[in-house]
Design brief:
- It is a single chain.
- By secondary structure, the chain is of the alpha+beta class.
- The protein has five domains: 278 residues, TIM Barrel (Alpha-Beta Barrel), CATH 3.20.20; 115 residues, Immunoglobulin-like (Sandwich); 89 residues, Immunoglobulin-like (Sandwich), CATH 2.60.40; 88 residues, Immunoglobulin-like; 154 residues, Sandwich (Immunoglobulin-like), CATH 2.60.40.1180.
- 14% of the residues lie in helices and 29% in strands.
- It contains twelve helices and 50 strands.
- An eight-stranded parallel beta sheet has the order 37-34-33-32-31-40-39-38. A seven-stranded antiparallel beta sheet has the order 30-41-43-44-50-46-47, with helices on one face.
- The longest helix is centred in the N-terminal third of the chain and has 19 residues.
- The two termini are 43 Å apart.
């Protein structure tokens, strides 16, 4: 989606605002910094026998340089000794070698190696501040061997120098090498570390006999650390070795201490016996920058993790709760990371755990339920479904769309507010230079672009970035609008554009988790868009490979080795990705798939089969037996006319949205749900239009919060409605006996009502219950809802339902939240009415028509 849908729905209501809002503004008068040049194709060296030498043409290429960004110049350099190059911090400029090409004049001599590189400089007298910027190419070599001896390996890529803050994960150091065509021999690799910049005195690194290594940050010193590789060509007992230029890994003091990451939260508990033995509360955490952790526990008067009373001497990971006869008590712990290797006074950073509620009393669950459910044994594979990564919304980067502020993002992604964990952002393609594109975007319409990503990362979420189109210069229609395709000769340039975007985000402190190659490749848009055939997407992946290798990503509170690669996110049916999945080469590039549920909502890769009746889900299976995740990354439901827009933020209309979440997660078995826009009058946070308050959470926002807070990072598990003729007291779980199917809820008011109906009716009013298990198996979460029609009628009053937990699951705590009605005081309210029986293996929930419950029980 979807500038088309955005403009269509605003229509009469905000037409005047759009006339002004569509103008992006003129940034031509803004201060212009110097543009750093880039290199499209690096020079390549060669390895020759002394009697078969033809001087190679060394060449560097820069594609599609925008002359308005400055004038490029070139200077070639040479040297013959790596140690000399390191001592002099460079080679010697070659007189007259000032073009994109250079042919060296050499006399072949056995075992001589000559090194070359070129420096590309951009000069721009109109730039503010520095008027020049340069970039150095790869150092390449021309080497000679006597006939009959092994040839020297040709190093095509040296390990790259880099700078990191103290404690940060490092990108892999890589070396690339090859032998001339048809040359015999076998290449091997060995890495070395050094105390000085050079190759003399290097120490071999144990088990580093491969093309890449990742140094351990804990083993590095502040300031500079040095690494290089030796590549050896072996034929029999004869060997020739090429050595790379050393990489300088600079470790600087961090800017500030990193907040610790809590890996295991303290858990709520409920104790049924009269004199219970209360288990200690425990927290597990880790420092993300090799600092020292400390702990302080607090008591409180409510389920909050702020404003509590410090508990003296409670400074360990474990806290022993004082004995109590009955009632509830509340606790939380603040974990502090202290890092003295930072350059500011911010040497400490803290994070509070989730609040904990301890309840002591008798079992209150009754036996007069109207409906009986069981969660069968979750260890049985047939009772387990997909992993659920999470939920969230889109931050739209168009100038005519409401701006998502930092406060909006805090509201949506703070775990103590709405608690989402997935954000989709837009990659603009206004210029082939991603640096310029991002400068203009942040200076203009989206000043919070980086900050919103940082907020999501701060709370342990996941950010996925999607381009609507490549830059127009690389498309068949020379326009950012739909109606054109990416020209094949520009595949690698576009892959590099996406790679540079991911690196740019990392460099600006806002790393992303995943990156797509296209929004809706099967939709011809009248706005930003690009069409791809299934075969073109397959061929793109085959040609460019896993183009984010070496670009650090971030998600789930951790840096990742690389940013995940996502397919083109289909406008409806996801089967346009079958061509890429059927080819092992392209499938190996794809880390995650995405689709949108416009039109073909119930067609999914999990449930449908190919024309030859081969299940599409088989194509999702990876070599290790697991499945590629499928994310639903965009959908929008609104009332489609100015009169109806006022309804979209009302409670009765929340059910169309909740039915959408249920369809994606329960029926389509997909792994994530991301709504078209996080902030919009038909979305989760109001934008001030159609009767909403700018920056205020809407019913749909609270509705998604039930799923986000209770079911993110879980596995969906089976839940079965058991006929009332068979009481759960005699049913112990496992496979249901023959004839036990999902049947009518025998309720006095709704004798023929159904639960968990399938279908694609947005006004589906069947009662719903879904269940989810935490990764460690210690928690079961449930979402229960009783939708009404948009009129508010025909909802199912379920009364009290009984839910039997999986066999052997004995609950020690219950946490529940409830939403109903339109007012904020009725949204996401903690609910103490959810109860356990005395044996703590059944849960009782009372839910009327038009209500939404989320429940978590833990042991």
């Amino acid at each position: 989606m979807n500038r088309k849908l955005f403009i269509g729905i605003t229509g009469i209501l905000i037409a005047a605002a759009l006339i002004a809002g569509c103008e992006l503004g003129d940034s031509s008068t803004a201060a212009k910094p110097i543009v750093k040049p880039y290199i499209s194709i690096q020079p390549i060296g060669g390895s020759f026998f002394t009697d078969a030498y033809t001087a190679p043409v060394l060449k560097v290429e820069v594609y599609d340089w925008n002359k308005s960004d400055g004038s490029l110049s070139f200077q070639w350099y040479e040297f013959t000794d790596i140690e000399e190059y390191c001592n002099n911090k460079g080679g010697t400029a070659i007189n007259g070698a000032k073009d994109t090409e250079y042919t060296p004049s050499l006399t072949p001599a056995a075992d001589e190696i000559h090194y070359f590189y070129v420096v590309v400089t951009n000069s721009d007298s109109s730039a503010q501040g520095a008027k020049k910027a340069s970039i150095q190419s790869e150092v390449i070599a021309i080497s000679f061997s006597n006939p009959g001896e092994p040839l020297y390996p040709v190093v095509t890529a040296n390990p790259a120098s880099a700078t990191y803050g103290w404690g940060a994960l490092l990108n892999p150091l890589k070396v690339a090498a090859l032998l001339p065509k048809d040359a015999p021999g076998q290449l091997s690799y060995l890495w070395y570390s050094n105390e000085a910049y050079g190759i003399i005195g290097g120490v071999p690194i144990e088990n580093a006999d491969k093309t890449s290594i990742t140094p351990n940050p804990a083993e590095l010193n502040l300031n500079e650390n040095y690494f290089f590789a030796k590549v050896t060509n072996t034929i029999g007992n004869a060997k020739k070795t090429s050595t790379t230029v050393p990489a300088i890994i600079t470790i600087k003091p961090g800017k500030r201490a990193a907040a610790p990451r809590i890996t295991t939260q303290p858990k709520d508990a409920i104790y049924i016996t009269d004199n219970p033995t209360i288990a200690p509360l425990t927290v597990e955490a880790e420092s993300l920058d090799m600092g020292t952790l400390s702990y302080q526990w607090y008591s409180n008067t409510d389920t909050k993790n702020t404003g509590g009373t410090l508990i003296q001497n409670a400074t360990d990971k474990t806290f022993n709760i004082p004995s109590a006869a009955s009632g509830s008590s509340y606790y939380y712990v603040v974990v502090t990371n202290t890092n003295n290797n930072v350059e500011s006074e911010n040497k400490t950073a803290s994070i509070a755990s989730n609040p904990v509620k301890i309840r002591i009393g008798n079992g209150t669950g009754g036996t007069t339920a109207n409906a009986f459910f069981t969660i069968p044994d979750t260890k049985v594979p047939a009772n387990r479904f997909q992993y659920v990564r999470g939920y969230g919304g889109m931050d739209v980067a168009w100038g005519n769309f409401p701006r998502t502020t930092k406060a909006d993002t805090e509201l949506m992604y703070d775990p103590n507010k709405l608690g989402y964990n997935m954000l989709r952002i837009m990659i603009r393609a206004d210029n082939i230079d991603i640096e310029k594109t991002m400068r203009d975007l942040v200076a203009g319409d989206r000043p919070d672009y980086y900050e919103n990503v940082k907020i999501v990362n701060k709370y342990g979420g996941y950010v996925a970035a999607s381009p609507w189109t490549p830059p127009k210069e690389w498309k068949s229609n020379n326009s950012i609008n739909g109606g054109g395709y990416l020209i094949k000769s520009y595949y690698k340039l576009f892959a590099n554009y996406l790679r540079n975007f991911a690196q740019h985000m990392y460099d600006n402190g806002a790393p992303i988790f995943a990156i797509s190659i296209s929004n809706e490749p099967n939709y011809t848009a009248g706005y930003d868009g690009c069409e791809w055939t299934p075969e073109e997407m397959r061929d793109f992946f085959i040609e460019v490979g896993h183009f984010t290798d070496g670009i650090r990503g971030y998600g789930g509170s951790r840096e990742t080795p690389y940013v995940w690669v996502m397919n083109g996110e289909s406008a409806n049916t996801p089967v346009i990705n079958v061509a890429a999945l059927e080819d092992s080469r392209s499938k190996a590039v794809i880390d995650v798939l995405a689709r949108h549920v416009y039109g073909s909502r119930t067609v999914s890769l999990w449930n449908d089969s190919s024309p030859s009746k081969v299940p599409y889900r088989d194509l999702l299976r990876k070599p290790d037996g697991s499945y590629l995740e499928v994310w639903m990354t965009e959908h929008n439901i609104n009332s489609a006319n100015a009169t109806g827009y006022l309804n979209d933020s009302k409670w009765n209309y929340v059910w169309r949205f909740m039915n959408d979440v249920d369809l994606v997660i329960r029926l389509n078995n997909e792994n994530a749900f991301v709504w078209w826009a996080g902030k919009r009058f038909y979305s989760m946070v109001g934008d001030g239009q159609a009767g909403t308050t700018d920056g205020a959470a809407l019913p749909r926002g609270y509705g998604l919060s039930h799923y986000a807070k209770f079911t993110s990072d879980t596995t969906r598990v089976n839940v079965v409605l058991v006929p009332t003729a068979t009481r759960l007291s005699t049913y112990k779980g496992g496979p249901l006996p023959e004839g036990y199917t999902v049947r009518e809820i025998r309720h006095t008011d709704r004798a023929t009502s159904m639960v968990n109906r399938s279908g694609d009716n947005m006004d589906n009013n069947s009662a719903r219950i879904t269940a989810f298990e935490s990764a460690d198996g210690n928690s079961i979460s449930m979402v229960l809802m009783t939708p009404t029609l948009t009129s508010g009628s025909d909802g199912i009053d379920m009364g009290t339902v009984e839910i039997a937990l999986p066999p052997g699951f004995i609950a020690n705590s219950v946490v529940a939240a409830k939403s109903w009605g339109d007012r904020g005081t009725q949204m996401m309210q903690p609910d103490d009415s959810v109860a356990l029986n005395a044996d703590r293996d059944k849960v009782y929930v009372t839910i009327g028509a038009g209500e939404l419950f989320s429940v978590r029980v833990s042991r």
